[in-house]
């Protein structure tokens, strides 16, 4: 088997066999196939696509390129959730404790953020002492005893994906459905959960700007998951404005705590409950989504969710007192209100610009080596549909550098489109995809 022949085969639009795809991924991971040949292969995929069988084969080859977590020592069916990313997305911090409070094991491997804000791991590290580098035994023990653990993804999980993504990033081949779907699902499959719930974001603050594209990606990932024996669901949700009210690492953990106490943003709460109900259905804890929603809402109302969050923090050596005293989180030096210069209704929020403004403050990473400031960010005071008087606060900025504050504040205010007329409101949940097909709301 020669890489040259396989490039020609895909260039000509032919279908690759499973063993041919495995040969490419294994060879590239081990350094036996050079970047320039894999670049040509990726470009051939970009133009000619891959069918469902090829996409599944590519996903499994990447999943099998490194360590695959064996979670068999954890009692019960394991559920995981993945988001395709957005601005202010702290859902894992909320739905994890809610689901765990119902006795469902949540064994989650998460990454650090590269972009607007930190990932789930960065956010958790804003809690003093919190340990995200759990050993395998610690991880399994915590899930068995507490029902939840969230740890940093090891470099041994799907190493082929890391190499391929770096190459796609510099060869303009990121934007291909099969390559995106296999990249996401290879890591989820290697992480060992039997039930996978995907939150596929769409809108101006999401990777998938177009709603139809988001449904196509969701369908591709659900087909991959179910093809390899994982119960997989995808929910398509709105990212045309930041999720919740907080953007920035410590600020988002504080909002997660408020939400678990029943005092958070209601749209954020609703999305978490919706996602969590599919996790419950997948592990056969409930028959219907509505039943799942009721059980999850009860964990907020009876306090079991916030108690579980506290237990989760303690189990990973974090300062659990932050749950009752948010002043223990890292604090920004400068906190200022951002005022509107016009009046009217918020018609649009250029969500990606809010993310970039957070990055300017130091709340995200431009490169993997960038340091991250856990204390900076924004609180969103006005969202789409809200009325704003001239001079009224649309947000609050948290910063540690005066020059960065001014630059980020200008970016933030320009993200708001305020008009005299009231806007048409976007649906939070656009629809969902299961093995039974696509359902749009």
UniProtKB/TrEMBL annotation:
Q: Name one GO molecular function term.
A: 1,4-alpha-oligoglucan phosphorylase activity
Keywords assigned: Glycosyltransferase, Metal-binding, Transferase
- InterPro entries tied to this protein: Glycosyl_Trfase_fam3, Glycosyl_Trfase_fam3_N_dom, Glycosyl_Trfase_fam3_N_dom_sf, Nuc_phospho_transferase, PYNP-like_C_sf, PYNP_C, Pyrmidine_PPas_bac/euk, Pyrmidine_PPase_CS
Which cofactor does this sequence's record say it needs? K(+)
Stored Pfam families: Glycos_trans_3N, Glycos_transf_3, PYNP_C
Specify whether Glycosyltransferase is a keyword of the entry.
Answer: yes
**Enzyme Commission numbers on file:** 2.4.2.2
Transmembrane stretches, by residue range?
none
Gene Ontology cellular component annotations, sorted alphabetically? cytosol
Extract the SUPFAM superfamilies matched here.
Nucleoside phosphorylase/phosphoribosyltransferase catalytic domain, Nucleoside phosphorylase/phosphoribosyltransferase N-terminal domain, Pyrimidine nucleoside phosphorylase C-terminal domain
Which residue ranges does the record assign to the Pyrimidine nucleoside phosphorylase C-terminal domain? 345-419
GO biological process annotation, one example: pyrimidine nucleobase metabolic process
Q: Which Gene3D superfamilies match?
A: Nucleoside phosphorylase/phosphoribosyltransferase catalytic domain, Pyrimidine nucleoside phosphorylase-like, C-terminal domain, Transferase, Pyrimidine Nucleoside Phosphorylase, Chain C
Q: Does the keyword Metal-binding belong to this entry?
A: yes
Q: Which family does it belong to?
A: Belongs to the thymidine/pyrimidine-nucleoside phosphorylase family.
Q: How does it assemble?
A: Homodimer.
Q: What does this protein do?
A: Catalyzes phosphorolysis of the pyrimidine nucleosides uridine, thymidine and 2'-deoxyuridine with the formation of the corresponding pyrimidine base and ribose-1-phosphate.
Q: What is this protein called?
A: Pyrimidine-nucleoside phosphorylase
Q: Which organism is it from?
A: Natranaerovirga pectinivora
């Amino acid at each position: 088997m020669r890489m040259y022949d396989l490039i020609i085969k895909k260039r000509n639009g032919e279908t690759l066999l499973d063993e041919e795809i495995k040969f490419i991924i294994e060879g590239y991971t081990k350094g036996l196939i050079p970047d320039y040949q894999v670049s040509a292969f990726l470009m051939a995929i970009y133009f000619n696509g891959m069918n469902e069988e090829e996409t599944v084969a590519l996903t499994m080859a990447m999943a099998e390129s490194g360590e695959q977590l064996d979670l068999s020592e954890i009692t019960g069916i394991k559920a995981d959730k993945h988001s395709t990313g957005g601005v202010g997305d702290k859902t894992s911090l909320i739905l994890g404790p809610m689901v765990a409070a119902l006795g469902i094991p949540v064994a989650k491997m998460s990454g650090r953020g590269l972009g607007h804000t930190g990932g789930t791991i960065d956010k958790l590290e804003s809690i003093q002492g919190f340990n995200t580098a759990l050993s395998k035994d610690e991880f399994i023990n915590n899930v068995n005893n507490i029902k939840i653990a969230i740890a940093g993804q090891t470099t041994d999980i799907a190493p082929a994906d890391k190499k391929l993504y770096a190459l796609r990033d510099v060869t303009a081949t990121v934007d291909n459905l099969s390559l995106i779907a296999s990249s996401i699902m290879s890591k989820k499959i290697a992480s060992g959960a039997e039930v996978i719930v995907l939150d596929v974001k769409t809108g101006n603050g999401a990777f998938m700007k177009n709603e139809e594209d988001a449904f196509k990606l969701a369908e591709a990932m659900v087909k991959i998951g179910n093809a390899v024996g994982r119960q997989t669901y995808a929910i398509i949700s709105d990212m045309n404005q930041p999720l919740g009210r907080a953007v920035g690492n410590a600020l988002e953990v504080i909002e997660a705590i408020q939400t678990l106490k029943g005092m958070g943003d209601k749209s954020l709460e609703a999305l978490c409950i919706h996602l969590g109900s599919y996790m419950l259905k997948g592990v056969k804890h409930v028959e219907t989504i509505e039943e799942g929603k009721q059980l999850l809402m009860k964990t907020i109302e009876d306090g079991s969710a916030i108690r579980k969050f506290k237990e989760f923090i303690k189990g990973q050596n974090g300062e659990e007192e932050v749950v009752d005293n948010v002043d223990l989180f890292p604090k920004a030096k400068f906190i200022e209100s951002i005022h509107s210069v016009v009046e009217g209704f918020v018609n649009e929020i250029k969500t990606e610009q809010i993310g970039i403004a957070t990055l300017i403050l130091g709340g995200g990473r431009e490169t993997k080596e960038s340091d991250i400031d856990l204390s900076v960010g924004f609180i969103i005071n006005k969202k789409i549909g809200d009325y704003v008087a001239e001079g009224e606060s649309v947000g609050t900025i948290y910063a540690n550098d005066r020059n960065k504050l001014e630059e980020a504040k200008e970016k933030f205010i320009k993200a708001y489109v305020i008009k005299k007329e009231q806007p048409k409101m976007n649906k939070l949940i656009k629809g969902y995809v299961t093995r039974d097909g696509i359902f749009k709301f």
